[in-house]
Amino acid sequence: MWKIWIYIRSRNRRRRKQQPRLHKIQLAEQRLLYLPIPKNACSSTKHALYEIEFGSAFDKETYVLKGIPDIHHYYKRRPDAHATRDDLLDLTSTTRFSIVRDPLDRLASCYLNRVVALGDLESSQAELLSAELPQLPDFSTFILKLDQYRTLNASIAYHTKSQSRFLGHSLEYLDKVFPLEDMQAVEGLLRSYVPELKLRHEKRSTYSTHPAKTIARPVLEHAIDILEEDYAFLKEFYSPDSAIDRYAS
What we know:
Elements: H1 2-18, E1 22-23, E2 25-27, E3 32-35, H2 42-54, H3 60-65, H4 71-76, E4 82-83, H5 85-89, E5 95-100, H6 103-117, H7 125-130, H8 139-144, H9 146-152, H10 154-159, H11 163-166, E6 176-179, H12 183-191, H13 217-226, H14 228-233, H15 240-247
Parallel strand pairs: 3-5, 5-6
Antiparallel strand pairs: 1-4, 2-3
Helix pairs in contact: 13-15
């Protein structure tokens, strides 16, 4: 009997080692755990969690002196910053949550923020020149050449990685999944720990027309194909047909 127990335990350990390690933010005392996804209000949520845990706002200047440039790096450097999906399944006494977003809207947000506003592609200037790709593409070009931009620029690859991969291709271990459109519910959850808490409003790129409305229908449909994995993963929340109906010209 003990041999069977040892075998099962060894098999489970091997299985966990084979699983991808997911970035998590865990507040042990509050029994609260958050799975962040880039471009899904993760900055404001991280700042709120820091305030819940420590009772004060994240002081960027103090952490910069310690070699930690922002709150994202702070949480990624914590000893408990990563776990497997099975690890998260075991945390049944902890409230586990994440925030998801319409895949096309998330891609447009990445383009406006990382490409247009922050100029992330500047760091890949030589590689882009060699590949004959523009450093500041329009949204249509960004979609059509997305695979190449991902290959040449780590930031674009990271910020356009599917939401499914940040969650280990599963929602089953999460107690709460909030669509981005319902940030009031997120704030309500966090206020159950600190009643006066207010989520920071993230700076959003301003535009008179949503980028998806500026592209031809074949490009829009190509974008939907690229995002097929996430639309399938988030089918309870978002539909590719709905996205096409909203933005097709």
